[in-house]
């Protein structure tokens, strides 16, 4: 009986490939399903053998912990993000101001 091991929805191709390689290195039998044509199925890696579940979960936990440590970067301050994309930030501020104006104007007109 197959067991769901790792969902691939929202996972980068790089991470999915690393997980496949990890399972291959440790000779863990698995197969992969995709989301299908309409994207409503489960894209995942499934174990073929139920007896390898605990070992697989341990390996995945170690892998994810390692990946989290590698990918952790300090967040950029607002000023640095603004310098990277000033036009985008200005457009967002304009959109917020427009929405606020449209929302408040009906209440300001007194008849």
What descriptive keywords fit this protein?
111 residues, mainly alpha, Alpha-Beta Plaits, 3-stranded antiparallel beta sheet, 3 strands, elongated
Question: What would a concise description of this structure say?
Answer:
This protein is mainly α and 111 residues long.
Protein model, in words:
By secondary structure, the protein is mainly alpha-helical. The protein has 2 domains: 3-71, Alpha-Beta Plaits, CATH 3.30.70; 78-108. Helix content is 56%, strand content 12%. The chain is built from 4 helices and 3 strands; from the N terminus they run E-H-E-E-H-H-H. A 3-stranded antiparallel sheet has the order 1-3-2, with helices on one face. The longest helix is centred in the last third of the chain and has 23 residues, at 86-108. The protein is elongated, with a radius of gyration of 24 Å. It starts with a strand and ends with a helix. 6% of the residues are buried.
CATH superfamily of the largest domain: Hypothetical protein rpa1041
CATH class designation of the largest domain = Alpha Beta
Q: In what order do the strands lie side by side in the largest sheet?
A: 1-3-2
Q: How much of the polypeptide forms β-strand, as a percent range?
A: 5-15%
Shape assignment: elongated
Number of strands: 3
Helix content class: 55-70%
* Quaternary organisation of the protein chains: single chain
Class of secondary structure makeup: mainly alpha
CATH topology of the largest domain: Alpha-Beta Plaits
How far apart are the first and last residues' alpha carbons, in Å?
A: 72 Å
* SSE string, helices as H and strands as E: EHEEHHH
* Unreliable parts: none
What radius of gyration results from the CA coordinates?
24 Å
Count of DSSP helices? 4
Our count of domains comes out at 2
Main beta-sheet annotation: 3 strands, antiparallel
Identify the CATH architecture of the largest domain: 2-Layer Sandwich
Mean pLDDT across the residues is 90
